[in-house]
Design the sequence.
């Protein structure tokens, strides 16, 4: 497989998954851009915005935008972090708790569909290899950051 084919496959998978998730969650008023943030906040109550940015490997502005939408729609609330008043801790609201199980079902369904035809060993091997690719990709960006620091 050529490198550009790998990139096209990864982008295609991401696009297909995002379209599918978007179609399943739009009735709840959440777009796929907020979906992962919402589930992370649910699974780690009190997570702060910096931790969300690190976990999603995005900038603080992206997190702020997604949280603003989720907050305006009443699904999450942000509370100023007492230890670092420049940051906020995030929690799912009662309204958010009302849809969390449906959203978790969508996530489970997507994963089951994606791994259709995989046995447990295939799945384990795939996830190990994907993790290696991710670590290697992090090295690429770390090299860029080191070059920027040297300039």
Sequence:
């Amino acid at each position: 497989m050529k490198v550009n084919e790998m990139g096209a496959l990864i982008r295609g998978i991401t696009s297909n998954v995002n379209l599918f998730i978007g179609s399943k969650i739009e009735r709840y008023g959440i777009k796929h851009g907020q979906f992962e943030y919402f589930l992370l906040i649910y699974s780690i109550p009190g997570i702060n915005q910096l931790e969300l940015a690190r976990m999603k490997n995005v900038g603080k502005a992206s997190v702020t935008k997604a949280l603003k939408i989720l907050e305006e729609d009443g699904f999450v609330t942000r509370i100023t972090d007492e230890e670092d008043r420049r940051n906020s801790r995030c929690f799912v609201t009662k309204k958010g708790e009302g849809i969390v199980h449906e959203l978790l079902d969508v996530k489970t369904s997507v994963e089951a569909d994606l791994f259709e035809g995989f046995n447990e060993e295939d799945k384990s091997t795939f996830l190990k290899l994907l993790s290696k690719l991710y670590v290697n990709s992090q090295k690429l960006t770390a090299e860029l950051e080191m070059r920027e620091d040297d300039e």
